[in-house]
Structure formats: C-alpha cells, structure tokens
C-alpha cells in the first residue's frame, strides 16, 4: 500500500496526504490531527467504505447548505426592500412627482417631473422654483431659527456667531434704520470726499466755473470703501498665468457694490421693445426723488427745478454712455497681457493727447498711490505689472477721454450718484419702498411675498456665511458623510480616468496631461476643516464691528475691509482654498485652483441622502461628475493642472476637440420652446452642456464601479419593477424638476450659460446609449433619436 498518499475518495476529491507515512505505520505516537485522519483511512476495507459514505454525506450536506444559502440570499436581495426613512422619502418624492402616463422614451423630463410642480408648490420666495429651491428654503428656515435663537454663553460659542445674530437683529430693526435715515449715507459720502449734496446744487455759477474735482482720487477711495468700480475696473487676483502669485488687473469696471441695491436682480429682457424707455422713465423718477430728498434733508428747502432737471438729464446721459461703453465687450480672458505701470500710463497719455489734446502723465501712479494708501505694500512703478485684456486696452483711453472732456461738476455728480445709489436701498423705509415700487417691473416673477426676515437671513448668509454654517453644520459630517462623498468622487474620477484611457481622439501627450490634471484636482467637501477649531471663526471675521441697531454700518464693516485686504494679498503666495460658503446650494469647479467645491448645503435631500446609492449617484453623483468635467470643457481645458491659463493640449487634439464640440452646439441650438422666439444658445451653453453630458456618463460608470465593490442594493419601494439603471436616470432627471414661467425661460436663454433645466435632462439623455438601453427606447424615438450622438467626455 502506498503510504505516501491516499487515493482520491470516491467523489474524486483528494484528501490530505499523510506527511509521516512511516511513522504512522510503525507507531501511533504522532500528531493528533494527521494521525486521526490517517488512522481513519488506513484501517480495514470496511472502514474505508464507511469513510467514503460518510464523506459523501458530509459533502452533500455542505453543498445543500451552500445552495440554500445562495438561494436564500438571492431571493432576499431580489425581494429585499429598502425601508429606511431615506428610501421611503425618496420613493414617495419620486413616485408622486413622476407622470407615468408619459412614455419615458418620448419625453423623459415630463416622465420624471410631470407632477413635480403640483407636489412642490412655489411659496413665492423665489421667482422660479426647483428641486434646489426646496433645499434653499430649508437652509433659510434653519438660518432663521439659528439667528433667532439666543446667544449661547455657556457653550463657548464663537463671538462671531453672536455677531451674526446681532447683524440679523439690526436688519430686522427697521425702526433704527428709519431713525438713522440718511445720516449714515452722509458719513460714508464724507469718507470718500463727496459732498452730502452734489456741488451742482450748492455752488454759485462763479464757484462752478472754477470748480475742480479729483475724480481719480474719488475713484480710488470709492473702490476702497465700497468695494466697487465706478469708471475703472481694478482688482488684485491670482495671476492667470502663474496662479500662486497675485497681480493687478485693470480695465473695464466689473465689480458692483456688495450692498443690496436696486436693479441687481433685473430680470427683464433687455431686448424688449419698451425696455430702454421704461428704464429711462424709472431712472428719471428715482434720480429726481433721491436728489430732492437729499437736498430737502440737508437744506430744508426744495431744489431749484431747472437744476434738478439739468442734474437728471446729465445723470441719465452719463449712465447711458457708460452702459454703452461697458456693455460693448464680450471677450474676457482670451487676450490678457501685461505691461509695467509706467509703460502703460505713457501709452494712455499718448492716446489721450491724440483724442482730446489733454494729457494725464502719471495717471496710474496717482491712482495706485491713492489705492494703496494705508496698505502695507510698496509699489514699484517701473517693475510692477498691470494685466489687461484687449477690451481693457480699448476701454481705458475711451473712458478717461470721456471723463476728462466732461465738466468736473458733472463728473462729481455722477460719482455722487453711483455712490448714493449703492447705499440707498438700505436707508429709511420710505425711500426703500419708493425705489422698490419703481423698480418692480424689472423683477419678473415677483418675489414680493418674501418676508423681511427671509431677506435678512439671505443677507446675513451672504456676509457671514461661515458663521451661519457654524450654526447649521452637522458635526458628524466629517466622519459620516464626507468619507462617503469622497468615495463617490473617487469612483467618478476613476471612471473618468478609465474613459480617458480609451479615447482615440486625444493624442498620447494630451492624454497624459489630462490624467495628471484630474489627479491634481482637489476637492473641498462640506465645510472647511477649521470651522470648529477653537478661535478659528473669530480670526476669520477679525476686524468686523457689529451692533444690533446699525444695519448699514454693519454691512459697511465687511465692505470696507474687503478691498484693502485684497490689496495686501498682492505680495502674498496664493493658497488653494474654499471658494464658497458651506451654506451655498451649488457646486463649483474653480479653474485657477483646479478644485471642486461641494458645500454641505447641496449634500442634502433631494440631491443627496436618498437612501440608495443608485439614487445618490444619479443625483449628486452627476453633479460631481459635472464639476469634474468642467475642468476639461471648452474653458476648463485651457487651465493646466496647476490652475494656470496655458496651452497644454497639442494643436491636433484641440482641433479634434473643437470639431467634436460642434456636434453639441448644433444639437442644443435646435432646442426651442413654444412661445419663445429664441432657441437655446448652443455656443454660449457649450461648457455647461459638456459638463452635464460628461457628468452623467462618469456618474453612471462610477455607480457600476460602486456595485462591483459593494455588491447590489435592495429595491426602492414602489419601484420594484425598475432596474438599477432606470432608477439611476430617474434620480438624475428628478434633480432638474422645476416650476418656471415662459418669461423666465426666455430671460434665461438670453443670459444664462446653462441650458434650461428641461433641456439639461433631455439633451444629456438623448446622447446617452446607456439611457436608451435602460429604458429600451427604440432607435428613432424622441429620447433616442437617429443620427450621431454627441460625445466628448
Ligand atoms: Zn456647471
């Protein structure tokens, strides 16, 4: 008998080989385990048979147990329903919002969102109302609760949180606002060297003849005090070609005052026949009202009618002229170059001399000196550079010529007006009411139903978003939600990488650089890590002074430190950082930071916390994918992995990319709405459409990655007949459900870089083969049209 190995048993299965054959034969004193088995098999024939039978039985039993276990598990999973609160909420929300009478292959937006508006009535806080508005409402209500709550002195709450509550109180305290009246405005006019009433109203003819006004000084002080551009645009920002350093940009005015002011949310269509006429009438009324009010308040007399008429006419004409000058430009970034300060001011002076026979030899030296007064930065006029685009080169001599050929008293009047207009809505209620009534026709889909308390919440959130976030943030977020979102983002990135590797339209070098950029893309999720560090929030709001009865001054406390602190950054290294507040219901890709920002507010139902990952990937996943794709859209592709504006793609790849994007431009150009003459603007919305399309594709593949790692998920109640893929697309469609008027769609088509929400669903899914497959949409159906499907990412 072979003692080295036992034969396979009758089932053909090899048993353990005895390692000590000789020992086993010679004595019984060997290792128990090996021995017991050896013994068992090495006895008589009877025992051998018995052994075989028992082995078979044991094996059979094992197999039965395994089969039953597998069957049980499969059966359980098949019928397993997710009955968590999150799942039930998602299920009910989707079920009641969807219109099952519509064929998903015919109009998927209608299918997903057909009954949404009925289920989610607009409370009137926002002109249009979407799934995201429902989150905004929740954020506002939570903000209101938080700001209305008492200061928690026992709990070591940061001082800035108390300041936020006081800020809110000051906004609600209309009595104090009324009592202060125009006195606060006078105070700030004085700070920027402007009179309480324009000189045109107070000087004699003789005085006016000799009147001189240093407009450049006012321009600089207004910029520093009100953080706004009047005639000249100026800002310190990361160098677009080397983002770690900050540089000075100069040119077309782009920054409005951060204070709430009229016309900021002008929703009226500018191409309307009566727009210009209506605007002129409203402006005339407001100008006359404000000038009269100020004059009476200061002098207790009525202004002279002819001076009032003259001032109004001057202001209307100057405003129109400035609007025309500024709105003339569309090119923003394509042609930015730099010149040192002296070089550029010489150039300006020469053009001025040609145009007006006047010169302003040291214009930038003067302006920049005024600006940096009191700021701890020394400027070298021979070495420091000014960054300008072609449009800025064109604009600056034009505006300076215009101002230098306009009477000084008119220029003073104009700068007085712009400054007062920035503050006027935040003074006494009779003035604010008059102006709001006048400007009402410019707010389509009026939001008059919104209470002052909500407006104050929005305001405090705008100025003190981090302090509000401190109150609203769930402290378990960092450990609970953030890792899950990070895993999702990582799956989405992996899908993107895998996709890039398969691309045939990209050459090897560009592919490599693209992969590197996606690797370098960092993410800011939820809220900054430092938010709950002791003392950190108070450092963030250092220098801010807030009282509970000084509304306008509270806001000015923020506004006044904004520009000086930006100017200080000129010599500082630029860190990649959060570019938004955690309470913002949105997500961003910051090109210069090569970062994705996903604030905590958007990580809420119905964009997140949906119970099943298939829903989360379809909803927030497609948003994360959207932001990732932005880094490689028609603009994002021009910023390299460090966030520098640079050509880092090869010419041939750029050519192919541009050729491929034409498909999207053509596709989106074809979308129209009955009753609106303009079609969707394919060219203008290209970047967003690329991001939408890429976003869904990457999220879809990322979900399949998730399934491979974590296994399948239970079913959603009421959707047992839906496949995973179907649910994914329903979740994607559902986040774009919206109630909106035709007027607003028309306005959005004119001004928004995003396609209308309905088109974001339809346009994206018409390009998705996975969608067509999931819903078995026949080729040629509306949601699976014939011809090429556009695809880049
Ligand atoms: Zn976007």
UniProtKB/TrEMBL annotation:
Its cofactor is Zn(2+). The chain crosses the membrane at residues 50-72. Keywords: Hydrolase, Membrane, Metal-binding, Metalloprotease, Protease, Transmembrane, Transmembrane helix, Zinc. It is found in: Cell membrane. One of its GO terms (molecular function) is metalloendopeptidase activity. One of its GO terms (biological process) is protein processing. GO terms for cellular component: plasma membrane. SUPFAM superfamilies: Metalloproteases ('zincins'), catalytic domain. PROSITE patterns: NEPRILYSIN. It is a single-pass type II membrane protein. The keyword Zinc applies. The keyword Zinc applies. Residues 586-786 form the Peptidase M13 C-terminal domain. Residues 104-528 form the Peptidase M13 N-terminal domain. Belongs to the peptidase M13 family. This is Endothelin-converting enzyme 1. It comes from Zophobas morio. The lineage of its organism: Eukaryota, Metazoa, Ecdysozoa, Arthropoda, Hexapoda.
């Amino acid at each position: 008998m072979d003692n080295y190995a036992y034969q396979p048993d009758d089932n053909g299965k090899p048993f353990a080989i005895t390692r000590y054959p000789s020992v086993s034969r010679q004595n019984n004193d060997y290792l128990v385990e090996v021995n017991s088995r050896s013994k068992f098999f090495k006895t008589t024939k009877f025992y051998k048979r018995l052994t075989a039978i028992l082995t078979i039985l044991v094996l059979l039993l094992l197999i039965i147990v395994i089969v039953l276990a597998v069957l049980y598990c499969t059966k359980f999973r098949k019928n397993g329903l997710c009955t968590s609160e999150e799942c039930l909420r998602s299920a009910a929300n989707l079920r009641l919002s969807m219109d099952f009478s519509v064929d998903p292959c015919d109009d998927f937006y209608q299918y997903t969102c057909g009954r949404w508006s009925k289920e989610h009535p607009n409370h009137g806080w926002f002109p249009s109302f979407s799934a995201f508005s429902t989150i905004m409402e929740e954020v506002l209500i939570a903000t209101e609760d938080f700001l209305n709550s008492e200061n928690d002195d026992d709990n070591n709450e940061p001082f800035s949180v108390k300041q936020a509550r006081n800020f809110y109180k000051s906004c609600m305290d209309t009595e104090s606002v009324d009592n202060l009246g125009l006195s606060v405005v006078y105070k700030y006019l004085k700070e920027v060297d402007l009179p309480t009433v324009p000189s045109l109203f107070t000087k004699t003819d003789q005085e006016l003849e000799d009147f001189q006004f240093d407009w450049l000084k006012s321009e600089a002080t207004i910029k520093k005090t009100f953080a706004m551009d009047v005639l000249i645009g100026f800002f310190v920002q990361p160098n677009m070609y080397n983002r770690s350093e900050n540089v000075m940009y100069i040119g077309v005015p782009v920054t409005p005052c951060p204070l709430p002011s009229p016309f900021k949310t002008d929703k009226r269509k500018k191409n309307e026949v009566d727009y210009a006429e209506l605007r002129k009438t409203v402006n005339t009324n407001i100008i006359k009202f404000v000038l009269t009010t100020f004059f009476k308040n200061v002098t207790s007399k009525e202004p002279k009618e002819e001076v009032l008429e003259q001032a109004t006419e001057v202001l209307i004409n100057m405003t129109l002229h400035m609007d025309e000058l500024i709105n003339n430009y569309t090119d923003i970034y394509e042609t930015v170059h730099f010149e040192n300060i002296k070089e550029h001011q010489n150039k300006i002076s020469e053009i001025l001399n040609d145009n007006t026979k006047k010169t302003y030899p040291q214009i930038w030296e003067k302006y920049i000196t005024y600006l940096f007064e009191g700021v701890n930065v020394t400027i070298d006029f021979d070495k420091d550079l000014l960054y300008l685009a072609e449009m800025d080169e064109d604009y600056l001599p034009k505006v300076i010529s215009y101002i230098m050929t306009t009477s000084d008293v008119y220029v003073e009047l104009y700068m007085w007006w712009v400054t007062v207009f920035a503050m006027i809505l935040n003074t006494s209620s009779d003035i604010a009411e008059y102006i709001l009534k006048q400007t009402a026709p410019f707010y389509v889909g009026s939001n008059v139903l919104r209470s002052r308390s909500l407006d104050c919440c929005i305001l405090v959130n705008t100025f003190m978003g981090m302090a509000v976030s401190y109150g609203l943030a769930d402290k378990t977020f960092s450990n609970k939600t953030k890792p899950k979102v990070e895993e999702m983002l990582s799956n989405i990135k992996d899908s993107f990488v895998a996709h890039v590797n398969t691309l045939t339209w990209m050459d090897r070098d560009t592919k490599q650089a693209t992969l590197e950029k996606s690797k370098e893309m960092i993410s800011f999720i939820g809220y900054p890590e430092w938010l709950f560090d002791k003392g950190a929030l108070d450092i963030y709001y250092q220098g801010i002074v807030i009282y509970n009865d000084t509304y306008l001054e509270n806001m000015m406390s923020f506004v006044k430190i904004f520009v000086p602190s930006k100017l200080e950054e000129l010599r500082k290294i630029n860190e990649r950082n959060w570019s938004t507040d955690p309470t913002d219901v949105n997500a961003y890709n910051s090109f210069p930071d090569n970062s994705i920002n996903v604030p905590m507010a958007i990580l809420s139902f119905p964009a997140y916390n949906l119970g099943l990952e298939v829903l989360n990937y379809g909803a927030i996943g497609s948003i994360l994918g959207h932001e990732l794709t932005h880094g490689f859209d028609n603009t994002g592709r021009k910023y390299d992995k460090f966030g520098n504006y640079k050509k880092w793609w090869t010419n041939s790849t750029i050519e192919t990319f541009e050729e491929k994007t034409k498909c999207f431009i053509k596709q989106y150009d074809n979308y129209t709405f009955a009753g609106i003459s303009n079609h969707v603007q394919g060219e203008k919305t290209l970047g967003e459409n690329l991001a939408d399309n890429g976003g869904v594709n990457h999220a879809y593949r990322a979900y399949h990655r998730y399934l491979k790692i974590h296994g399948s998920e239970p079913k959603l109640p009421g959707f047992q007949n839906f496949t995973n893929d179907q649910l994914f697309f329903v979740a994607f469609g559902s986040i774009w459900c919206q109630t909106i008027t035709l007027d607003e769609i028309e306005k959005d088509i004119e001004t928004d870089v995003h396609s209308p929400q309905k088109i974001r669903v339809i346009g994206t899914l018409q390009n998705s083969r996975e969608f067509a497959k999931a819903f078995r949409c026949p080729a040629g159906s509306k949601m699976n049209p014939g011809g090429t499907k556009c695809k880049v990412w």
